[in-house]
Amino acid sequence: MIKNFSCKDFRNVNVDGLEFSRINVLIGPNNSGKTNFIRALSFCADMVNNSEKLIGNSSFQTLVCRYGMEDIYNKFATDSRQEITMQWKINLDNKKKVNYKFSFHTGSQLQDFFITMEKLDDRYKPHYEKRPFNYFTCHEKPGEGYISGAVNRGEGNNRTKFKVPHNDTVLKQFDQIRLENKVIYERSSRQVGMVQMLQDYFSKYYFYSSSQFDLKKIREPQGMQYNGSTLEKDGSNFVNVFNYYKNKDIYMPITFLEKIKELMSTVDSADAVAEFGKLVFKIGYEGRQFHLSDLSDGTIKALLLTLLIHVPVNDGFSMLAIDEPEMNIHPAWQQIIGRWIQYSENFKQCFISTHSPDFLDTFTEGFKRGEVGVFVFDPREEAAVRQLKYAEMEEELQDWELGDLYRVNDPSIGGWPW
Q1: C-beta neighbour count of 266 within 10 angstroms
Q2: What is the pTM of this model?
């Protein structure tokens, strides 16, 4: 779980040491930076998970091109170095606390984009250490990296130097570096576990935007796939993903149906079935069967959200981010889905971006208990991202819901883009 995040000059994202909860809600007007913030959080995960044809034989440069080279650096920044810096403080699944830092140079040409620093170290470092403990540090000198022999503080630690291209992340190059360097291969065996844990953590990041779900494709019958373990960004393989996990767990459709009935009490069946050589999804109620093509946009999006929140895709997410899940969803359903998110065990951490006061209402009690982090984005303020503190607004909130303050444009939480 990400406990702390810092970022400088990635588009309009400039944050220093933001502290996160398991559930985090992002609110603010359009163009205030919410989506860019989630992209920054997911930047290294997107490199690790990249399956595109590589540009320049580099996952890093491929990702930069996808985001738009000339748009990735803060347009209002005055730093002549044109460098973007990110830092994640993470609690890994084995309770290991690590600090991962990543910086890169930008420009107008692909060759201007290269990594200037990448480091993985112990999350907590005493200030008196002249040479802080770390697992690896790379790119601070172009083409050079150092890997530690130790994996725990206090152990004897011989650092081994190696060459590393600075056009891609070490997390993508580590296996090849070990194979090509006998000394590194012999001395880095203890570090393999640490690097693999970080790779595995980032590999389970998933970011979906409700506006990007392709409802036309989702409604179409699908050819049967045998490796439909991950929902595509556009949701187009929903039926195959449902079928994949149905075949892994015969009780999954029952659980899925129970959740759907919380939204639509008259539904008595929901399943993926083969029809004319294709795979289709049907729901049934009042003795009739309906294909996805018969259902409203909001109902289809509710089916996708039910899958993401309740079906353990790839054994669960390290981080699930959903941009505007309330789109096309009835306010009554928003309340139910908001509660689902807070009690789901399908992810280690969740980030939700929303404009809906009805959806925001559901997080009020969790916010009061300190279980939900709420972050206000407002480009008019000096600090564009501000974390709400219940202790500072307890008197103002009283018996109100968070959405109530949002509806009336209360200064503490905002709500309107003016």
Answers
A1: 8
A2: 0.92
